[in-house]
Design a protein that fits this description.
A hairpin with a 2-residue loop joins strand 20 (about 370) and strand 21 (about 375). It is built from 13 helices and 22 strands. It has helices spanning about 20-30, 50-55, 75-80, 90-100, 105-115, 125-130, 130-145, 170-180, 215-225, 255-265, 310-315, 330-340, 385-405; strands spanning about 5-10, 35-40, 60, 85-90, 120, 145-150, 150-155, 160-165, 190-195, 200-205, 205-210, 230-235, 245-250, 270-275, 280, 300-305, 320-330, 345-350, 365, 370, 375, 380. By secondary structure, the protein is of the alpha/beta class. It has an 8-stranded mixed sheet, sandwiched between helices. A 6-stranded parallel sheet has the order 3-2-1-4-5-6, sandwiched between helices.
């Protein structure tokens, strides 16, 4: 990615993640971009302005009424200069100001004045992120066209675990690059993504399921959305926040998923099946809670669920691109290639879920992209980065198919 000469304004607000913003500046400078940093007063309590001045090789703005480094109205000058305006970390406070149009310091004033694309990387406590006021502010900002990356889930500085951690600098810089280089390569495309785990009921209070959290499927949905796609997400049981700005269709069982896919798939351009679907379900679903009977064993009779991916492959239409996932514990490539053929897929994303940093409920993944052209092994990376790599490969496959048909 070459960003030589591109103008980036970076707003840094008062959160512990402010230290990561220094890496954002460093990465952007390495790619050739000119970076101009605006810090809130609270941000200077976490990181010294001198750090950003050194890394950016530009003055750092912290005070609305300070004498400008150059003779101009500084907030207007930076607002006009920006080709993209990034706020990282973006606290709940700055998101609220942006939503309400408040301009009471240099950062909020410049944000209000700019016509550049705005990208925010939220970072806050999980309780603040899920608060109704924050959710409403996010909705308002998205409707106005503000782009968003993250937040990620994991251990937070306060000791809580959940959504609220700022996305990694590498991912933020990649998103900045896509904005600056016109990365809307999915504009006009309809993309359906499945995510999470299905549940197969034993009785009203028990079910069979698996460890899928929905992170991978949601990362793909968010990446496709940010690249201009019209995204539909069909999701089962998940343990992470639902993505914004997409159509959401909840399902519970494999049968529910099958019914939904048969209705929705014919209208899609790209179908990416990242959900972990139960292979079996109880033959009998009890209407009342199953009770213990002394020391007797409980014997369950299971029947096979419909193969959703195979069914989607059987009804595929010309021009559609189908992608599946193979989460395996042994014979990864052999099993994945069999699925590629038997389910009529264009690509399968294969990963060994026994590897550290891969599989269910992690923020990273280790995968291989298997197509009929061959296999590309990928290193450990964030699920968002993998999501974009999957979307890149889909674009390549679609261009190849188009060339063949021409």
């Amino acid at each position: 990615m070459n960003l030589t000469g591109r103008e980036v304004v970076l707003g840094v607000t008062g959160g512990i993640a402010a230290y990561k913003s220094a890496e954002i500046v460093s990465r952007l400078r390495h790619l050739g971009a000119h970076v101009h940093v605006i810090m809130t007063k609270n941000a200077t309590e976490f990181v010294s302005p001198l750090t950003f001045r050194t890394l950016s090789a530009n003055p750092v703005v912290t005070d609305t009424f300070a004498a400008p480094e150059y003779w101009n109205v500084e907030h207007v000058a930076l607002a006009k200069l920006a080709e993209v305006f990034v706020v990282a970390p973006a606290t709940a406070n700055i998101l609220a100001k942006m939503a309400a149009g408040i301009a009471d310091d240099m950062l909020s004033t410049t944000l209000l004045a700019t016509k550049a694309p705005i990208l925010v990387a939220p970072a806050m406590n999980t309780g603040m992120w899920t608060a109704p006021a924050t959710r409403e502010n996010i909705r308002i900002l998205r409707e106005r066209g503000v782009r968003m990356i993250g937040p990620d889930s994991g251990m937070l500085a306060c000791g809580d675990e959940g959504a609220g951690r700022m996305s990694e600098p590498e991912a933020i810089v990649e998103e900045i690059g896509r904005i600056l280089t016109g990365g809307k390569d999915y504009a006009g495309k309809r993309v359906l993504v499945t995510a999470g785990a299905t549940r197969e009921r034993l009785d009203p209070v028990r079910f069979l399921t698996n460890d899928s959290s929905g992170k991978m499927g949601f990362a793909i949905a968010q990446a496709a959305r940010d690249r201009g796609a019209d995204v539909t997400v069909v999701y089962g049981s998940v343990s992470v926040p639902l993505p914004e700005g997409v159509r959401l269709i909840p399902v519970e069982s494999a049968t529910d998923l099958m019914d939904t896919m048969m209705k929705k798939c014919p209208d899609q351009d790209v179908i990416i099946q990242a959900a972990a679907v139960a292979d079996y379900r109880p033959e009998i679903r009890e209407s009342e809670k199953i009770k213990k009977k002394g020391g007797d064993r409980l014997v369950l009779s299971l029947v096979q669920n419909p193969d959703v991916a195979r069914a989607v492959g059987e009804i595929r239409k010309p021009g559609q691109t189908l992608v599946g996932f193979a989460a395996e514990t042994e014979h990864l490539y052999d099993n994945a290639r069999r699925k590629l053929d038997s389910k009529n897929l264009d690509m399968i994303v294969a990963n060994d879920v026994t590897l550290p940093g891969a599989g269910f409920n992690t923020d990273t993944n280790i995968a291989a992209l298997i197509t009929r052209d061959g296999t590309e092994e990928l290193p450990i990376q964030t699920k968002r980065k993998l999501a974009d790599r999957i979307l890149d490969e889909i674009i390549r496959l679609r261009k190849k198919d188009q060339s063949a048909s021409d």
